Amino acid sequence: MSKLEDLKKCLKEVTDLGYARALAEWDAQVNMARGGAEDRGDVVGTLVGLMVQKFTSPETAKALEGAEKEIAGLDSDNNDVRIVKITRREYDKYAKLPDGWMAKFARLTSVAQNAWEVAKEKSDYAHFKPYLKQIVEMRREYASFFAPYDHVYDPLLNIYEPGMKTAEVQAIFAALKPEQVAIVSEIASHPQVDNSFLLKDYEGQKQWDFGVDVITHFGYDWKRGRQDKAVHPFTISVGLDDVRITTKIEKNWPSASIFGTIHECGHALFEQGISPDFRHTILASEISMSVHESQSRLWENLVGRSLPFWKFFYPKLQALFPENLENVSLDKFYKGINLVEPSLIRIEADEATYNLHIMLRQELEIALMEGSLEVDNLPEAWNAKVKEYLGLTPPNDAQGVLQDVHWSNGYFGYFPTYAMGNLLSAMWWEKIHQDIPDLDSQIEQGKFNDLLSWLRKNIHQYGGKYEVQELSRKVVGSGIDPKPYVRYLRDKFSKVYGF
């Protein structure tokens, strides 16, 4: 057996352990009784410890070194070359961590997830604070393992966006922020649209059924996935043929279910579309989160909040909820679901203000990592940023600092990928329309095969083969550029608000 095959065998075992961990974490958020948090934390910690132990073992190191020699001289785009290259990148990363560090961190975040749920439910930051302090301390410690660096936030960003630097993201956001602020200001100078029809009683099961119908049309493969309910919707893969999504139902706000389901379906379609050639390899798991978010945001917003989409699906929604929608025209409904107004909750934010939510979170994360902000003062700092960016003041912690699950999971460095995913989605969208000129007409007829096929061919199949900027140049000929997204926002909202 070649060293490359030895390496793939090692990676399969690591991948299998990763899927076992994913299954344990899925169950913790979907089924597990809260009293099981400590024990489940031990299970997850043990699995992570075994994953790291196997991945950094002498056996894997020897196979990796041998595989590097075997692939020398092959085309840099060759799949095996990429597998070896990314394995080396990740191996070197984990090799810098002390023995047992990842297992300890996994145990902590597994328990912290449960503590966050309780704290959010009670709007009690004090309940979650001790866990967050430990997470921030360990994340600062993690960054220290990679010194020297350009910025302390770089090692954290690199977890989710390999190859990108904090300064690079900050430059992108600096170019984007004034454009978004100007658009929001322009919208605010025009009469507000009406969305009062969304603030009524919508039966939960019917919301669920509508979401299932929508994502079935999109092409979500129910033989290779399932949907459940969770406090904070997420997507998780337990294998290329077991990609699970979750949603949440809010009785008086159906947008949460509709667009949350579509968002998670976008992630799942990506996972279900990864090339089978990458099964049990690192290319099926180490994926740019900006690219991943570009898929969820594309389906949620550029498809799901578009007029062509609702020309097909609105009659179906009206039929389910005639008491709320029979006297609401398509035009009024379309404008209502695209209402722009600064809001407290990120996952319910409109497209024009969403990235502002991301920017304020990144600034807080950077301050926490730099040590200029401590966990004790985070609620006050959060409220100040929300006031600065959105002109609002959270009435409680549940609608403020506790609203996102990410920090309980230790996901510092993740938030920027949402905004970059938005930018990528608009870049893809312009290219898709060039390649599929009648796309809007197809969507109006409830046909999504050509769109999904384009995404499968140009993005999904590659999994984690390319870093984000590399894939962007491959698909559209340039790196991440805010301009297409700004064009998209201006074109859309000038029609919604009449300017």
What tags apply to this protein structure?
Neurolysin, domain 3, globular, 2 domains, mainly alpha, 3-stranded mixed beta sheet, 499 residues
Detail the topology: elements first, then pairings.
Layout: H1 3-30, H2 37-55, H3 58-70, H4 79-95, H5 101-122, H6 125-144, H7 154-160, H8 166-188, H9 204-218, E1 225-229, E2 235-237, E3 243-247, H10 254-272, H11 289-303, H12 307-320, H13 322-325, H14 330-337, H15 351-370, H16 378-390, H17 416-435, H18 439-444, H19 449-458, H20 468-476, H21 483-497
Parallel strand pairs: 1-3
Antiparallel strand pairs: 2-3
State the gist of this model.
The protein is mostly helical. The protein has helices at 3-30, 37-55, 58-70, 79-95, 101-122, 125-144, 154-160, 166-188, 204-218, 254-272, 289-303, 307-320, 322-325, 330-337, 351-370, 378-390, 416-435, 439-444, 449-458, 468-476, 483-497; strands at 225-229, 235-237, 243-247. Helices cover 64% and strands 3% of the residues.
Overview of the structural elements:
It contains 21 helices and three strands. A hairpin with a 5-residue loop joins strand 2 and strand 3 (243-247). It folds into two domains: 3-122, no CATH class; 166-497, Orthogonal Bundle (Neurolysin, domain 3). Strands 1-3-2 form a three-stranded mixed sheet, with helices on both faces. Helix 3 (58-70) runs antiparallel to helix 4 (79-95), helix 15 runs antiparallel to helix 17 and helix 17 crosses helix 21. It has 499 residues and is mainly α. The longest helix is centred in the first third of the chain and has 28 residues, at 3-30.
